[in-house]
Amino acid sequence: MRPRKIDDTATPREPLKNIKTILICEDEPALRELVRASLNGGYRFAEASDGFVALRLAQELTPDAVILDLMLPGLSGLDVLAGLREDERLRHTRVLVVTAWSETREDIVAAGADDFLPKPFEPDVLKAKLESLLAES
Amino acid sequence: MSVSRLRTGRLSLQERLVAGSVLLAIVVAAAFVILILSLATLREATRQEAQSRDVTAEALMLQKLVLDVETSLRGYVITGQKSFLEPYDAATKELPDRYSELDRLVADEPAQRRRAILLIAAIRTYISDFVEPVLAFGAGGLAAARSATDIEGTRRIDGIRKRFDNFLEAEDVLVASRAESADEGSKLAIALGVSGLAASAGFILLFALYLARSIARPVREAASGAAQLAGGDLSMRLHEGGPGEVGDLTRAFNEMAERLQVALGDLEEQNAKLRDSDRMKSELVNTVSHELRTPLAGVLGFTSLLLSRDFDGETRRHYLGVVDAQARRLTELIDKFLDVRRIEEGRFARVEEVVDIAPLLKEEAQLYGAQSGNHRLELDVPSEPLPVRGDPDGLRQVIGNLLSNAIKYSPEGGVVELAAELDGDSVRIVVRDQGMGIPAPQQPRIFTKFFRGDVATSGISGTGLGLAVSRDIVESHGGRIGFTSAEGEGSTFWLELPEANGATSDQENDVKERKKGET
């Protein structure tokens, strides 16, 4: 009901410290699985299905990137985003907003996101965007 | 409003105007009548004064004739010549006319008439008892007649002259009193005329003032009220009252304003409803697009993966299963969105079902109890069901927020108590901790979005949204949320939700079943 699992899918040949942690905030389990499958392994994943859990996990884990749905139960995605940007340690965490809402990219970037991907999305595009975000940091 | 109600027990304006005009006419007519009467009195006094002068003149004329008689007699007696008797003959011819004329003139003055009659009688006696015998006697011996004329004639004439003096004196007194009364009459006539005209003028002025007060002013107020109404101030009302039709006008005016205001209120209400319904429609469009895009993203995403990458058979089958489930969910969503009634009832986003909150509390206690090693979570929930009507996910979120806060803000550890009970016709839930508590100055603001007070700088993470969201959820369920707290001694948060009446109905069971099918 309230997923809070650390899914370590890192491949054994990479050293553990180089593996990046990605927090997936998405209330639909199928889409969380789609994100994981799209990124094709190589990351450590944490998942949250509501905004409160998402914020708490982010504060506990300080992930390298957050993939954030805007329409979350509890705290909305924008509230989570605001919460992240308020937190000293999470201020520079890369945030990729994946949303079905029709907000423009400008609005979402203005709210503090680093990039934006509308639903439905191409798995390869998601992978490429996340990689480029992580490369910038 | 019926006309009869407007008119009850009051004179109409028209009736008042007619009555006022009639009264005015009576006052003016009375003033003129008094004036005319006074003038008539004055005229009568003047006429009497003139008559008095005539009386005096007549008396003087009579006196002259008597003197003519006496002089003529004396001349004849002394000289013995017949020619001296000519004035006597003329006087005796004229005397009867003079008598009757004088008698006529003094006819309306009894005292004076008595004097006149006595005077006339004295003259007649003088002529018949003295003058005529002397003349008859004189034909025989003038010497005897002469002595008689000297002594007896003088005595008699003196008596007559005295009577004349009396008569004229009385007539003078009469003239003086008549002149005085004529003078008084004229003064009275002037006074009455002036005061009558002044009263008329005053009455006209009062009538004009009354008209201005009772008609012109209310009409002017009605006009400015109408301008105010036209300007959009529908709350304005005239002072009701005024005579007859003016009162009708102000009452009708106020009723019109009242109806306009009510009609405008209705219109605004309808507008608000329309706006609400517009807003709901656009929210619905957003929600539908979001709800559809999520499963669509699953279908397209996994299809794309399956097309572009190689997976082993088991993974492929699993992904195809996800695609299948998402596609089915799309179909169900479309069915759901087509249920127009949900839009009309205005509770599109609200899940309404009867929830037993007891097991829900147990689940949340387990979940949060496992999160912290140094807190002990004590659960005190009765064995009977605690039914409330609402959205189980929302209620779960509220309990989760309160438990999470209780743990978060008691960093030293300790007991966190979660209790629930049926209290009257509501379900009361209490979360109590032994933590840091909330400083009194910050207590009024803790339900404000993003407000965190001192804890913002204490290293305890949080967003300041949990309580705000919780209050929204509780209030949308018709409940209340509150707390008591003292700094350093912990906080107790409570919430009350109305108890759902009766057991879960079949229909609601159906809803539950459908929901299970959806997820």
From the alpha-carbon coordinates, what is the Rg of chain B to the nearest angstrom?
65 Å
Give the helices and strands of chain B as they follow along the chain: HHHHHHHHEHEEHEEHEEH
The portion of residues assigned to helices of chain A is: 25-40%
- Chains forming the largest contact: A-B, 33 and 35 residues
Strand proportion of chain A, as a percent range, falls in 15-25%
Largest sheet of chain A: 6 strands, mixed
| CATH fold description of chain A | Rossmann fold
- Name the CATH architecture of chain A: 3-Layer(aba) Sandwich
**Helix content, binned percent of chain B:** 55-70%
State the domain count of chain B.
Answer: 3
Write up what this structure looks like:
The complex is a heterodimer of chains A (137) and B (519). With 137 residues, chain A is an alpha/beta fold. Chain A has one domain (6-136): Response regulator (Rossmann fold, 3-Layer(aba) Sandwich). Chain A has helices at residues 29-39, 51-61, 77-86, 105-110, 123-136, and strands at 6-8, 20-25, 43-48, 65-68, 94-99, 115-118. Chain A has a six-stranded mixed β-sheet with strand order 1-3-2-4-5-6, with helices on both faces. In chain A, helix 1 links the parallel strand 2 and strand 3 (43-48). Chain B has 519 residues and is α+β, with helices and mostly antiparallel strands. Chain B has three domains: 6-215; 240-349, Helix Hairpins; 353-518, Histidine kinase-like ATPase, C-terminal domain (Heat Shock Protein 90, 2-Layer Sandwich). In chain B, strands 2-4-5-7-6 form a five-stranded mixed β-sheet, covered by helices on one side. The longest helix of chain B is centred in the middle third of the chain and has 89 residues, at 142-230. Chain B is rod-shaped and about 205 Å long. Classes of the chains: A alpha/beta (137), B alpha+beta (519). At the A-B interface, helix 1, helix 2 and helix 3 of A face helix 6, helix 7 and helix 10 of B.
